[in-house]
Specification:
The complex is a heterodimer of chains A (63) and B (273). With 63 residues, chain A is an alpha+beta fold. Helices cover 16% and strands 33% of the residues of chain A. With 273 residues, chain B is an alpha+beta fold. Chain B has 6 helices and 13 strands. Chain B has an 8-stranded antiparallel beta sheet. Classes of the chains: A alpha+beta (63), B alpha+beta (273).
Amino acid sequence: MAVSGFEGFEKRLELQFSSHDPDIGIGLRELEFKFLEQVLHQVQCTVVSALGNQHFDSYVLSE
Amino acid sequence: SSLFVYPTKIIIKTCGTTQLLKSVQPFIHHARTLNLHITALRYTRGSFIFPQAQPHPHTSFQEEVAYLEDSIPASLCYRKASVIPSKLKSHSWHVFSAGAVEYSDNVPLDLYTVEVCMTDLDQTLARKFFRHPNDGKNGDSAGREMTEITGINRINQNAHICDFAFDPCGYSMNGIDGERYSTIHVTPEDGFSYASFECVASIYNDDMADMVKKAVRVFGPGTVSVATTSATQDMCARIKGAVEQLGMKCRSFSMDEFPAAGTVVFQTFTSRR
């Protein structure tokens, strides 16, 4: 494995959700940032940059 | 690596030896606090270059699938795991898909996904993703400079870009354009240089082939693989034509059907150099 910890081709995970409640609002975007950080910690990542719009939030991560 | 959070969808993409699959249960658990329940999961990856360096639950695709099967509810009953081969021994595409609803062709999913993996980057182009010592910049400002000098900002002119440059080398960016995201990750070191480009589009966008071509041109790779999920055959053919216009030769075209995700097409190309 490379010194930088790089292991080559990425792994990609996509999860889709739904609700019985017709009015989902912003749904998962309501998750608190500290929770996202907890999950990212388990995946050995931290957020280095972020950007969002009215449709979704995006985060650039570092390992 | 990147994370995208939509109201009802999460996409997380990591390279390196992260234990990505351990995020499944926490995401399911916390979505439940918002009254949201999981309806589909899709896990994809290329071939591990250093498989012995992979931690549990990634030591093999069989182990990853077993771990995912245990992590999701029985309601996601349409399941399939498959390794889509290519003529290049080092390039196979691993897919695990599970869903509560069967995919049906005549109701195409809104967005389809294109995942491009590039290796053996052109050395001159890869060198642009190294930081200059004592450049007096931070990750953000150095990332912005890399975005501009490499032309990454011209792949999708409508996208707002969030970029970051790592020290001493490496680069990541996310592009956001309405509901569409795109993302690029680069490891430029000689010997295992690698770059990825991923983008989603709806069947109403017709710029995907052109964006793939521009992204591949940024890196000048020796080998390219393109995995498309839930895209039309016509779009797969257009992407093939666009990569061939760069002088690359298609070495393999394989596909597989997934009950909860539709068709995954996996194409590999090598340069003629």
